[in-house]
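Assemble and predict.
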Amino acid sequence: MTKRVKIYSQGEPLAPWREKIHEIIFEADTPAGKAFDVVLIGIITLSVIAVMLESVAAIKREYSFSLDIAEWMFTGLFLVEYVLRLISVRKPLLYATSFLGIVDLLSILPSFISLFHPGAETLVVVRVLRVLRIFRVFKLAEYLGEADALMKALRSSRKKITVFLYTVFIFVVIFGSIMYLVEGANSGFTSIPKSVYWAIVTLTTVGYGDIVPQTHLGQMIASAVMIMGYAIIAVPTGIYSTELAKAYRESSDTSNTACIGCGDEGHDDDAEFCKYCGEKL
Amino acid sequence: MTKRVKIYSQGEPLAPWREKIHEIIFEADTPAGKAFDVVLIGIITLSVIAVMLESVAAIKREYSFSLDIAEWMFTGLFLVEYVLRLISVRKPLLYATSFLGIVDLLSILPSFISLFHPGAETLVVVRVLRVLRIFRVFKLAEYLGEADALMKALRSSRKKITVFLYTVFIFVVIFGSIMYLVEGANSGFTSIPKSVYWAIVTLTTVGYGDIVPQTHLGQMIASAVMIMGYAIIAVPTGIYSTELAKAYRESSDTSNTACIGCGDEGHDDDAEFCKYCGEKL
Amino acid sequence: MTKRVKIYSQGEPLAPWREKIHEIIFEADTPAGKAFDVVLIGIITLSVIAVMLESVAAIKREYSFSLDIAEWMFTGLFLVEYVLRLISVRKPLLYATSFLGIVDLLSILPSFISLFHPGAETLVVVRVLRVLRIFRVFKLAEYLGEADALMKALRSSRKKITVFLYTVFIFVVIFGSIMYLVEGANSGFTSIPKSVYWAIVTLTTVGYGDIVPQTHLGQMIASAVMIMGYAIIAVPTGIYSTELAKAYRESSDTSNTACIGCGDEGHDDDAEFCKYCGEKL
Amino acid sequence: MTKRVKIYSQGEPLAPWREKIHEIIFEADTPAGKAFDVVLIGIITLSVIAVMLESVAAIKREYSFSLDIAEWMFTGLFLVEYVLRLISVRKPLLYATSFLGIVDLLSILPSFISLFHPGAETLVVVRVLRVLRIFRVFKLAEYLGEADALMKALRSSRKKITVFLYTVFIFVVIFGSIMYLVEGANSGFTSIPKSVYWAIVTLTTVGYGDIVPQTHLGQMIASAVMIMGYAIIAVPTGIYSTELAKAYRESSDTSNTACIGCGDEGHDDDAEFCKYCGEKL
């Protein structure tokens, strides 16, 4: 998102009125822009709630009509907004193909599709993704910075998490198959995929209880899986905490003092000389 | 709480007898004050237990009468205490509108309301909040300090947690809706709100098992949700640990004393000489 | 445990034969002593397994007799051992009243009690506590050191954990009561204690599913509880990780270099002068 | 794995053609070698999926025949591969007895066994273990390095985890037995082993709900177990995070370069001058 914002904040000027629209719709730094975002998020939330309520049989029976109207009003509003966005950006295609651009489109289409294929309107719920814009508003409150910190930590722990998930994956397949052989069909372990599903439910400590081992051996193995899951749960947390702590240290320790020699920052708290130019700090 | 205590410990003196009452009721530093708090917490605990027992059908049938008496005794005591508090503070309104002041009031009212609206007496359970005063007593044992440390960490991780919760919120709405479309009404996913409820139950690894996916596709998606929840659980922990570690580092070792020789800080609590220049601290 | 060991390793000598017995039974540093411990732990494990098997109806029907014999054999062995321990220590009373001494006694009594009160023999399972001696053997492998590290971290996070548990306690009482009022008896929330039990089951993400909210409002509140529990789970972990990290840093950074001046250890990695006597390191 | 790779990359040369095969099959650094691994992993994955599908009654009824053919094709391929591996290594026995060598063998045998003992083919699922080779391919992307980091942290926290698991083990046996005595057979706690199983299910916060306390006392004890489990879950995470953080610190910033001037270490990776004496590094 930040990226896209950058793209539009640089480069040769648009026509003033488009510039104005752009500023209101895309930026969140001006009062107008922020107001727009706040209102938008409000409408998005309302429209999502409407869709959710419509799915409740009792409510639909009652307020079906008014909900439909609301539904189309929201669709109309979003359609207008979408067009304005297309107009007010320098590279409409770039926007249309951007993640948020696609989300914006997807949050309009279903309503129209539902005209031909009833039921499709539920897909409108994808609108909730538009709430992601909320971080734009947060940015002013430096929330986005936090989000970046979280993201950075996630990115740098990506590899580890992948390795971890792979191990978990192999783990559940193996134990799922074992349980399938041990328990047999009598107690819900009707197939390996289902047993793997059980293994995941157990390892993640969700434990629905819809599939449960009945035999003594099965329960022993299950216990082993649980204990492991219990110990394994430590791994991603450990990974993430560490990464986050690092991301932190780099950001925090840093930036207090800038070297007089090279103006470089990022010195440790106990540094007495600039580590880049050797200048006394 | 600390704040309020401060407010009352400064400023022009009250009438000696009010001063005395104030010291006993509000302060926890004097023997009398501490004794009062300890007794009070004991009574509060008893009254809460009484309310809880009263809700147990079997017990109520047996001891209904004695429980009522106890109930009114407690109410009486708290009423007296509340009045004394109002009298003994310089700004009664300030106290009455403070969090604990409101709690104190709410822990008396229900009993009287129940005279006109039977059943309301259950609300008396709000009294348990009064137990929060216990931290006042703890303070002497520096427990409050710890509580502050925890709070500080929570505060500084507030933004991150918010961003996190937002993401989780969007996450459960999306997956709840998907499951609603995939599973349909046949297996408990009767509406989007209910499906979102399921998503929360699953993501948080609570896993009641009251709503469970039946279709193969549904179980696959559920598995994905669980694994994610499993990985996601790392985030708040990571955030909090990091913040706590920071809050620690700042409070504990560093920043107390700067060396006279080199002006360097970051010496351990037990350091007697600067570890950088050897100067006596 | 370490403490007790210390007590016996200092002071005026026992009679040589008692000294010998003591060394074998209490110490784990000599080959004989270690062998004894290993055998003992083996027997303890066997006796515990025996008790567990005896509780399985099917097995009891089959091997009732042989299990009884085994049971009495184990009791006899432990009785002899207990007597030897009493004989071989300088202060029998001190041992008899020590935690492990009481456990040793409790692991013998039930068998005899069961002669008069059948069923009491199940209490023999307390013997499993004797397995704690295993750490004595581990000590050789420096496992005890690790255990100490864990313990130290637990001790220093004791206060925080207490504050945390208190908050959780208040939390579950409040929400338990609310759910009791919201859900009513129709869906398992028959009393406040039961509702509090539900709140604990939910907050800890155990989620049996034996008590589950039925109303929409109830499910919303439950969701809130879960999300909170999800965020709250971060706290103890954060606390503990931090404490452990500290316990670590102190132990690791430390002890590499001893000051030449005062022979004191525990200097940071980046220290250039002894922080106790100012001597150049 | 890394170890084995080393073994084969040193020492006197093989016959060129065997060398070639070896390079393709065992190494993952050459294009050919990597391509081979990627294809292999694809086939393994397919074969595992085939086994899983075959276990689904509905699918088996439909595609039994084609699945059998696929099954035998995969077996054939793996057989050929296994033979090639034996040929192309200097010490066939060393490979055959290595972990991956055994896995390779086990992933062929079941199919043949199933000729005499139908049903054995399910064991083929052990093939999923072969996917572990995937880390070989990852290595190029430095994933293996990450895996090593995780492993190192796991190894160094091995002792602590052991102590922890021991405590948990004793814990569940004790509480399992207590619950067996408290609850009795009426509510699923039919034997101590089953009660211990319950204790594990509860402590790990899996909470199937297949065995649930019915009595008030039982529910109190259960609550205690849950809260403890909730607090205990912090321990492995804490241990692991700390170890990982350490493994990190050691590997990342410190210990690479010592200053020529003051011999001080602990400089950041990007440091060009000693931060203590300003000497050029």
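The radius of gyration of chain A is 27 Å.
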